[in-house]
Automatic annotation (TrEMBL):
<dbReference type="GO" id="GO:0008017">
    <property type="term" value="F:microtubule binding"/>
</dbReference>
<dbReference type="GO" id="GO:0005874">
    <property type="term" value="C:microtubule"/>
</dbReference>
<keyword id="KW-0547">Nucleotide-binding</keyword>
<dbReference type="GO" id="GO:0005524">
    <property type="term" value="F:ATP binding"/>
</dbReference>
<dbReference type="InterPro" id="IPR019821">
    <property type="entry name" value="Kinesin_motor_CS"/>
</dbReference>
<dbReference type="InterPro" id="IPR027417">
    <property type="entry name" value="P-loop_NTPase"/>
</dbReference>
<feature type="coiled-coil region">
    <location>
        <begin position="366"/>
        <end position="434"/>
    </location>
</feature>
<keyword id="KW-0067">ATP-binding</keyword>
<dbReference type="InterPro" id="IPR001752">
    <property type="entry name" value="Kinesin_motor_dom"/>
</dbReference>
<dbReference type="Pfam" id="PF00225">
    <property type="entry name" value="Kinesin"/>
</dbReference>
<feature type="binding site">
    <location>
        <begin position="121"/>
        <end position="128"/>
    </location>
    <ligand>
        <name>ATP</name>
    </ligand>
</feature>
<keyword id="KW-0493">Microtubule</keyword>
<feature type="domain" description="Kinesin motor">
    <location>
        <begin position="35"/>
        <end position="357"/>
    </location>
</feature>
<dbReference type="InterPro" id="IPR027640">
    <property type="entry name" value="Kinesin-like_fam"/>
</dbReference>
<keyword id="KW-0505">Motor protein</keyword>
<dbReference type="GO" id="GO:0007018">
    <property type="term" value="P:microtubule-based movement"/>
</dbReference>
<dbReference type="InterPro" id="IPR036961">
    <property type="entry name" value="Kinesin_motor_dom_sf"/>
</dbReference>
Amino acid sequence: MGTVGGEELARWEKAEGFEAAAGVEGGGGGGKTEKILVSVRLRPLSEKEVARGEPADWECINDTTIIFRSSLPERPLLPSAYSFDRVFRSDCTTKEVYEWGAKEVALSVVSGINSSIFAYGQTSSGKTYTMTGITEYTVADIYEYIRRHEERAFVLKFAAMEIYNEVVKDLLSTDDTPLRLLDDPEKGTIIEKLTEETLRDWNHLKELISVCEAQRKVGETLLNENSSRSHQILRLTIESSAREFLGKDNSSALVASVNFIDLAGSERASQALSVGARLKEGCHINRSLLTLGTVIRKLSKGRNGHIPYRDSKLTRILQPSLGGNARTAIICTMSPARSHIEQSRNTLLFASCAKEVVTNAQVNVVMSDKALVKHLQRELARLESELRYPATSLNIEVLLKAKDGQIRKLEKEIKELMQQRDLAESRLEDLLRVVGDERASRRWEASSQTPGLFIPYACGDEHSTTRPSKVAAGRLNCPAYTEVLLHKSEKDISRNSIEGSEDFCKEVRCVEITEAGISECSNSLSTEVGSSLVGQSMNPKTIEQKLKGRLT
């Protein structure tokens, strides 16, 4: 169908940075996170639709928005406007669709990045027509790129398959034996015994594509005379490396694949009037497309939860293209006819979910056997060095573990000390309560046996003969009373008055102990006991001994 001019291709390469990518000689770059490129192509009304006089209810109002304009008030559709990365009117050519809706993604393959282009839509909406043109334009641009970069050596390989009634078949082989899908830890899902042809030139590829078209299952339905009854996947793999490094120890290659996926169209049995084999084909097609829609819907909401890739062969093969290591472009085709309103709306809802799916494409670099052996030898030497000389990180880990042990030990000691403190405070409260009870008991006995209590106290004169003795002061150090003398009889009182002087008798007065006095004395005692415990270990036995000494 033609090739892109040299100046136009050069401008595109410079804008996309593929000139630099083609000269990479080593490890691949980091992944590029982006959303799937989604565009919608509105086909013209078919001859049958025009003959039936059907109006076109869908219209592209600009390059990114398509709206529903219906004169049927009983069938409102909400929303009535949909926006995408690109919208193509019915008069747009396939070349325009390729330039704006697929080229940027498809040609990522020459820089070592996987890419996938696929068409989605109802039957007879123009999917196969669109994908045929996009495939030819892409391959033509790839060969033009190869011609302009003679400093690199390129190897192109081609493979093709179809999924018919949930069975995978090789389109480059006449053998109809179903192919198995296998899981590879590095490559992902691979197709066992799939034929892969090394291309000689562009004409060779055209011949192989013609073979695939002849092998593909096609059938006639009421909606389409040449309806595709299977999903077709064409895979073009490109390996490139710098010529100056070919055969050398440090040589490496960029390896990537571009997939051209032409999905079978969804259809309603009531509209297609399918029976027998066509009905069975339609059931398998709809089931696989339903699984694809479920995967797209779940991916559009994030990667939380289970993604049912394995529910169909189609989604299992397309898994790298759906949120994986590939750049992806989806072209949704639809009919503007009023009779296909529901199918067109479902297509737009699928496209709305697909544009929210995020992929993470990376440059794929493959080293030669010699370069790989050399790399592994360096890695082995590094690991042996780490074993011979323990890394600093290991020492830090040991120190951290030791510090954690010390912290746990100190926390345990703090907990024990707090328990001892609480126990000592509890014992102190109990002892103070016992002291108060004993003082009350003594006061009761004294009041029942003696009419009064005589308490001498210190006079202001420091030479006074009434100053209390050291022994008395040591027994009970109260601020209001220095010594309590209990006189059991009048005889004892008179004897004391004879031995003392007249001045002494004048200084002595009879004082009855009141509740306030007992409380003041008790508080003084608790203050003295508490102050004596400051700076000492909170041992309950020590507190008990001190209190007993004060009481005796």
